[in-house]
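To assess whether ligand presence alters the predicted conformation, the chain was also submitted together with flavin-adenine dinucleotide. Input:
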Amino acid sequence: MESYNYLVVGSGLFGAVFVHEATKRGKRCLVLERRNHVGGNIYTENINGINVHKYGAHIFHTSNKEVWEYINQFAEFNNYINSPIAIYGDEVYNLPFNMNTFSRMWGIKTPAEAKAKIAQQVAEAGIKEPKNLEEQAISLVGYDIYEKLVKGYTEKQWGRSCRDLPAFIIKRLPLRFTYDNNYFNDRWQGIPIGGYTPIIEKLLEGSEVMLNTDYFTFIKENPGIAEKTVFTGMLDEFFGYSLGHLEWRSLRFETEELDIDNFQGNAVVNYTSREVPWTRIIEHKHFEFGTQPTTVITREYPLEWEPGAEPYYPINDEKNEILANRYRELADKCENVIFGGRLAHYKYYNMDQVIAAALEAIRKEFNS
Ligand code: FAD
């Protein structure tokens, strides 16, 4: 006899939205979470009054009105606009690449001057068919931007030289010919006041949650506990890695509390030279315009993934996509299992896409 309608594996955003909607429709949900906290990668922890993004900086941004209105039921969002800074040696640049960046780099003032400078550098490089990422980037933005803002950062991220990386990784490098440092082009943007964890806690109200509980161990002892399973863990793990491992890129976070009130004056600072081992430093208080007397910073280091490491970014190259498709075929044959979220779909999703996908799964499930 099933005790629950849904066994939901994972308390990240996908699982939590699904649980909220199913509970609202009178269904009983049991949530299993392997970690010792809910929220998946959007989990925030309060340290000295500062909401620390434990799994990397999370800025909510969307152009999907339904999703924006949905998430606003569970939190009030502030007016944070993501405007990252790049540090290259002693030089400080605005991101994304825009007129402030070009002006700082070349001392120019107008869009026409910036366009001419880039066109001149692209022409001088004379690359017709880029053979690697370096050539691809130079053929798109010219030498200066590549050298100071793309090269070192990308090499750290991938752990190898841009000359040894395939050109397809960078399809385009957006250039903005306005003085606009807003990183995102979306209609709505912000940070939930009080962090993301309270949103997840509200979404999970009315369900039962078991922390520190791994699905694969649990289900052996409790087969048939629910009518259906919503699985938001890793796709290849669900099938016992029977076809092989899907590859990811990983990250290492080093968090430090500092006895000063302001470390870097901005939430996100990218370090674009190869010599600095971290790619970014996040100063969490600036996401919520914090005025606390101390601060918390996190250095982000790229990490080569190996089985067992935390999976952050899927490597959607041809080899991995072929494997993922074979797993997806197996998933399609699983009755009574709904696969959802970034790990089970082996896709990079922003938070708004995860919410939209969970709401879509609910519509399908309840024919509504
Ligand atoms: P997850 O959050 O990973 O949740 C899955 C949960 O399942 C986890 O808690 C995991 O512990 C649990 N689980 C897995 N396997 C098992 C098992 N066998 N048993 C029990 N539990 C299990 N998006 C944005 O919109 N804006 C941003 O600025 C942004 N920044 C990001 C920065 C980084 C570094 C990363 C990696 C992602 C970022 N994202 C951002 C994307 C965002 O994190 C995801 O969209 C979102 O967290 C995905 O939610 P999910 O539920 O699919 O997965």
